[in-house]
Amino acid sequence: MAVTETTGGGACAPSVPALPDPATEAVLSCGLVEELAYALGGPFHFLLPGAFDANLRAMRAAVADAGVDGFVYFAKKSNKAAVWVERCVAGAAGVDVASVGELREALGHGVRGEDVVVTGPAKGRELLDLALRHGALIAVDATDELDALLSAAAAPSGGGRPARVLLRCLPPAQPHSRFGMTDAELATALDRCVQAGDAVRMEGFSFHLSGYEVAPRADLAARLVERCLKARALGLRADRISVGGGLPVSYTDAESWRGFLGAQHGGQYHAGKRFGGDDFYPYHSPVAGADALRALLAAGPEGQGRPLAALLREHGVALLVEPGRALLDRAGGSVFRVQGVKERSGQRLLTVDGSSLSLSEQWFNSEYLPDPWLLPLDRDGASGVFPAGVGAATCLESDMLSWRRIPFRRRPRVGDLLVYPNTAGYQMDSNESPFHELPLPPKVVVDRVERTDAPGGRPRWRFDRHFLRA
Known about the structure:
This protein is 30% helix and 21% strand. It has 470 residues and is an alpha/beta fold. It has 2 domains: 22-48 and 330-469, Lyase, Ornithine Decarboxylase, Chain A, domain 1, CATH 2.40.37.10; 49-250 and 285-328, TIM Barrel (Alpha-Beta Barrel).
């Protein structure tokens, strides 16, 4: 419900409370956030690998319960921290990479080459060479890329291994996508795979599909199964399909999300900023994460008369998934200190010691909506409803962490901490840059939230290894 009467600061947007998360709440309640803020002297991110492990187990269980062969790859682009790759190794998962740097990071942290899938368009020769030498699976996006891969495989630098290939299909429902091949291009690519003989191991097909709807993904997956059968008739292996990522995350409850969309308007944002409902990520999803994967496997593709899982089982086709955000659900948060409070004409604006480059949604002309928690410097501060937008410590008018006036339940003051919840998926570092020569926020890994061998049950923490090398 929208808040229209406040104790100052102007009308605020409706609250979008984050879903309960005991691990994050334990970190906030034990004093660790305040201690780290004091020690580090600036903004930072905290990471919760236990959440990643739980999400990975749930996805593997969804595939196993459906009786389907499958494999989970973590989409590395969703967060640069090394800890996630370490957890992939521990959990027998793969990693989805799209650059030489990402591939080196994955290999350097112990991922086997055969457990890497290389995606992205127009891959350069250096990336293809490295992927070939380590036996990675390569999602080919165009016929000229396939030609480049075949050339690399024939060269001495190819290591004498066959090129492991998925052919990426252009989704019929998204014909203007820049990813994937048309039917004619796929026919050409299949012919070249046949002609290449033992130089290529054509393992199946993949697609890149925008959006989070289950039915279109199931329909396209079924089409890829049919393509596998036709490719097998040509003598190719074709025993797996990749449906990419696109598993939604639910950040808030249904009632809060409906209330926000129905009540938000430009008067609740700093400087009259306006967003349409379609500008936002769907912060509530009735089926999310591993449950969305279960729903995909249980969905009946158009014209099939049976679930996708049954189709995969019947034809011996394995399902590959490449989630990023869904594996990082509730796996961390971002902390900023309030260093200025400005009140003008009944409007309140906070300035924090960081940049929206460290909360990346703003740079997609959108808004990160889950409410930040306010950790007051003085626990005895005034309570009520205190609407405030949140700006960054830079010289750009547009550098806002939160355009909307968040309904804080205590009066924000200089020295207070703001903790944005559930930011590990695509928010923490997609656009981070040392603007104004401000250092990038460090990443702190909370390895164990509860410790029985320490006074007060304090967590054990360390710096992420990727941050230490940066």
